[in-house]
């Protein structure tokens, strides 16, 4: 055992918010030169810990040490100056500013006190991006970049402070495999003998690849720290959730020829989609896979009328339907659960029952224009029970629930509406492993009850585990539809990286070309 | 193990120059509409297209333009300031108090008036940034306070600047001999130039965009958002003070009850000029063009003897059209 002092040490830290004890005797030790993974279910206290480390909140008790010296940040800026850079889960970029302006925000090179030196700003940014080997244009407007490139800007910004400790909260949530590899390469280059990384993630595979040790926390308390080399994934998950989880693979039963519920033919949009066709059968989970920007989400949005279609026909149980907007879709029993729950799925300031009742308010819970509160509460409580939504009551404000439970509220909302077709866009984004499992079971149950489900996901294991068939997209087109038997990680990636017009060694697909 | 060549990190980002051109396009469009409207009136009325009328349009742009330039900063920061109209009237009255009642020297009185406008902005800024009152409410309250105070301070009667020598020249004099451009127009151009430089090239401008674009991210990047919001509202207040000087100098009197309505015209100018009410986007040049469009419309419709009531209806429709075309254009590029 070496007597080397820890780079960052958290010891006996307590933090309470009104009514909630967020952290209790929390501890953590980051050694110099290591990547420490931090895992825990949502609500375990990770984000509270981040907020203490970044100086947004102050701890009630306990202490932090950086290099053996007390570390007491008073603001995010102060934390940066002391040598801790944090990349938060939600992007903290200013969309209307350029890459360079974002990287150096708050410490722009100036000429005199007031005027900015934009030339030096761009030169400095270009030099930094070059050094980090990131293919970004310093003058590009951040709001127009892809999510992956925005993530790279965040990282460039964090590293530009030359921090001792880099903390990343779910950095890969929106990245595809190639982008994750690029990110890990950056992390490896950043980690020197005198620096360290805290890597918060739910993805066990990544933790295995990048981290040296993993610290597990649960319910605001420290649980254990394991060496990644010797720990198994089930070990880690069991520590996280406090129970063992069976990670079964493959969908439970593949449906062959059920009747088609939803038929889509030649769907196109002006910006991206081109000739997208597929069938969704009754009781089927149809996975949509593809790289970022391949058009998975756009298919869902065009389908429910959230984006304008330039072409295409949609049939529901054999009859052609007109869907001009999401309200039309909902009326026809097609529910879309957006990837961005907080922006498009929930009224965060409203309570659970108001959210559950939202889309069916008029057809189920009103009499002569007045809301029938009793009926609404009863139904909400039923669903809270059957979906196992963990909330103190139906009156709890939704923003206080964990990610997994928020997702269940969104699902409940569409169940009340009696939707037959449910489109899940990234159903487990930002949801921890234990709750993910529950969402998976829920999807399987819904399919077993005869609901038809489209599931869009950037996590291949999730696609493979749940989908009865997989539609693979690339650059706005469908490049392959795979049965569960054919659907392997390699197969999907092959179709996902096809450029439209190319073929995956299937000569018949070239038919129709001149 | 991946054998395939790793794809590059997403599609190549669109270059900054393309974005810059599209930003310019917005101004070009506004400018083109200005030309179209101007040409229309020139054809429709023989009295419109004259040098005198051109100057008269510029002159009538001054007050709204000055207010609009200041409030552009507030709107880009995703705020709003409804108090600039009645605030301007109060500043005009204060100018009377300083120069007529207290008899301060001209320069001192003018400066004091402008600073008084800044002080009103400071109060707005503190209400918004520190007390966290939503800008709409905070400045609505200030609008009423200013309206009332203007009447109280002036005893509900106009204050005349007849005895203050040189005051009228601030607006109506001609600094450049031989060229028939009133000083007020030169003042507007000068302050707009300064504001334009500050908006695009200074720390103040950068943080104005940044706060309007994503306030939380700005705060987490270590920028004191509260302080900068106070600065932004205070800065805009200085323009309210200046507008108070310009309008009273032009009229030769401070009219305590005339401010209401100017704020909406100024906000309309900003919006027509392409500044987004949700913050993060906008320019001073756009605002000036917006203010000119409003002046040209008012002037042209008046020359064509269209009743005042209808002028407002048309102005309202122009605002809708301007914002709608901006929407459509943005949807297409995104």
UniProtKB/TrEMBL annotation, chain A:
Residue spans crossing the bilayer: none
Highest taxon of the lineage: Bacteria
Domain ABC transporter: 8-244, 254-500
Lineage of source species: Bacteria, Bacillati, Actinomycetota, Actinomycetes, Kitasatosporales
Keywords assigned: ATP-binding, Cell membrane, Membrane, Nucleotide-binding, Repeat, Sugar transport, Translocase, Transport
Record localization: Cell membrane
Membrane protein topology class: Peripheral membrane protein
GO function term, MF aspect, one: ATP binding
Keyword match Chaperone: no
Protein name: Sugar ABC transporter ATP-binding protein
Main subcellular location of this protein, as a coarse class: membrane
Record PROSITE patterns: ABC_TRANSPORTER_1, ABC_TRANSPORTER_2
Cellular component GO terms, alphabetical: plasma membrane
PANTHER family registered for this protein in UniProt: CARBOHYDRATE TRANSPORT ATP-BINDING PROTEIN MG119-RELATED, D-ALLOSE IMPORT ATP-BINDING PROTEIN ALSA-RELATED
Automatic annotation (TrEMBL), chain B:
Signal peptide: none
Predominant cellular place of this UniProt entry's protein: membrane
Compartments it resides in: Cell membrane
GO molecular function, one term: transmembrane transporter activity
Record's keyword terms, sorted: Cell membrane, Membrane, Transmembrane, Transmembrane helix
Alphabetical list of CDD domains matching this protein: TM_PBP1_transp_AraH_like
Sequence intervals crossing the membrane: 28-48, 54-75, 82-100, 106-130, 137-161, 181-200, 230-251, 284-304
Keyword set includes Cell membrane: yes
Pfam families given in the database record: BPD_transp_2
InterPro entries associated with the record: ABC_transp_permease
Any Gene Ontology CC annotation: plasma membrane
Domain of life: Bacteria
Membrane topology per record: Multi-pass membrane protein
Annotated protein name in UniProt: ABC transporter permease
Organism, scientific name: Streptomyces hainanensis
């Amino acid at each position: 055992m070496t007597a080397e002092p820890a780079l960052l040490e958290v010891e006996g830290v307590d933090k309470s918010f009104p009514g909630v004890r967020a952290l209790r005797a929390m501890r953590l030790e980051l050694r110099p030169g290591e990547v420490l993974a931090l895992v825990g279910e949502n609500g375990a206290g990770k984000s509270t810990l981040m907020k203490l480390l970044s100086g947004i909140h102050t701890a009630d008790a306990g202490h932090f040490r950086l290099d053996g010296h007390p570390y007491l940040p008073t603001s995010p800026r102060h934390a940066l100056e002391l040598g801790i850079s944090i990349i938060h889960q939600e992007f903290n970029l200013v969309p209307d500013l350029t890459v360079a302006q974002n990287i150096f925000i708050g410490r722009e090179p100036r000429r005199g006190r007031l005027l900015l030196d934009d030339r030096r700003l761009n030169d400095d940014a270009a030099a930094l991006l070059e050094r980090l080997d990131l293919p970004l244009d310093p003058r590009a407007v951040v709001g127009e970049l892809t999510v992956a490139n925005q993530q790279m800007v965040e990282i460039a910004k964090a590293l530009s402070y030359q921090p001792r400790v880099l903390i990343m909260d779910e950095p890969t949530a929106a990245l595809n495999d190639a982008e994750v590899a690029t990110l890990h390469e950056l992390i490896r280059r950043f980690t020197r003998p005198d620096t360290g990384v805290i890597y918060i993630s739910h993805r066990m595979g990544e933790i295995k690849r990048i981290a040296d040790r993993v610290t597990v926390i649960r319910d605001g308390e420290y649980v254990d720290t394991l060496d990644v080399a010797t720990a198994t994934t089930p070990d880690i998950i069991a520590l996280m959730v406090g129970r063992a989880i069976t990670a079964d693979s493959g969908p439970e039963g593949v449906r062959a020829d059920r009747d088609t519920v939803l038929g889509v033919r030649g769907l196109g949009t002006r910006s991206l989609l081109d000739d997208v066709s597929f069938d969704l059968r009754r009781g089927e989970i149809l996975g949509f896979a593809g790289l970022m920007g391949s058009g998975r989400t756009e298919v869902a949005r065009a389908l429910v009328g959230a984006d304008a279609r330039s072409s295409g026909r949609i049939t529901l149980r054999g009859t052609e339907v007109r869907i001009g907007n999401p309200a039309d879709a909902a009326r026809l029993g097609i529910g879309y659960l957006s990837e961005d729950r907080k922006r498009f799925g929930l009224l965060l300031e409203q309570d659970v029952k108001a959210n559950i009742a939202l889309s069916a308010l008029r057809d189920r819970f009103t009499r002569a224009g007045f809301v029938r509160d009793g009926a609404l509460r009863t139904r909400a409580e039923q669903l809270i029970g059957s979906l196992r939504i963990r909330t103190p009551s139906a009156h709890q404000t939704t923003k206080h629930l964990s990610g997994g439970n928020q997702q269940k509220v969104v699902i409940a909302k569409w169940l009340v509406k009696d939707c037959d077709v449910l489109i899940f866009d990234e159903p487990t984004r930002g949801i921890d492993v234990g709750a993910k499992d529950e969402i998976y079971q829920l999807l399987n149950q819904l399919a077993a009850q005869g609901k038809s489900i489209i599931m869009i996901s950037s996590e291949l294991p999730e696609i493979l585990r749940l989908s009865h068939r997989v539609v693979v997209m690339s650059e706005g087109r469908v490049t392959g539809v795979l049965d569960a038997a054919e659907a392997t990680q390699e197969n999907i990636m092959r179709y996902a990286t096809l450029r439209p017009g190319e073929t995956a060694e299937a000569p018949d697909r070239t038919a129709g070309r001149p | 193990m991946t054998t395939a060549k790793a794809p590059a990190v997403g599609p190549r980002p669109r270059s900054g120059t393309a974005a810059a051109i599209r930003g310019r396009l917005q101004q070009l469009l506004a400018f083109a509409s200005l030309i179209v409207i101007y040409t229309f009136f020139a054809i429709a009325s023989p009295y419109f297209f004259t040098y005198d009328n051109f100057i008269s349009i510029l002159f009538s742009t001054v007050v709204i333009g000055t207010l609009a330039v200041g409030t552009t900063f507030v709107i880009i920061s995703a705020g709003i300031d409804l108090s600039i109209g009645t605030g301007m009237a109060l500043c005009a009255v204060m100018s009377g108090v300083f120069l007529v009642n207290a008899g301060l020297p001209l320069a001192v009185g003018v400066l004091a008036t402008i600073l008084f406008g800044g002080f009103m902005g400071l109060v707005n800024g503190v209400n918004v940034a520190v007390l966290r009152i939503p800008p709409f409410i905070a400045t609505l309250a200030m609008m009423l306070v200013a309206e009332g105070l203007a009447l109280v301070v002036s005893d509900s009667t106009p204050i005349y600047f007849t005895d203050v020598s040189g005051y009228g020249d601030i607006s109506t004099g001609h600094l450049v001999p031989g060229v028939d451009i009133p000083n007020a127009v030169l003042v507007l151009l000068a302050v707009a130039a300064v504001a334009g430089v500050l908006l695009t090239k200074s720390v103040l401008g950068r943080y104005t965009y940044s706060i309007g674009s994503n306030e939380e991210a700005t705060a987490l990047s270590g920028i004191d958002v509260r302080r900068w919001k106070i600065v932004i509202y205070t800065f805009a207040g200085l323009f309210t003070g200046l507008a108070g000087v310009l309008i009273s100098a032009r009229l030769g009197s401070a009219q305590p009850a005339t401010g209401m309505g100017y704020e909406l015209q100024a906000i309309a100018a900003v919006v027509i000029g392409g500044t987004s009410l949700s913050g993060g986007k906008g320019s001073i040049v756009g605002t000036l063009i917006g203010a000119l469009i409003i002046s040209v419309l008012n002037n042209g419709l008046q020359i064509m003897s269209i009743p005042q009531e209808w002028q407002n209806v048309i102005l309202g429709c122009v605002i809708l059209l301007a914002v709608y075309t901006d929407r459509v254009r943005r949807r297409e590029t995104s």
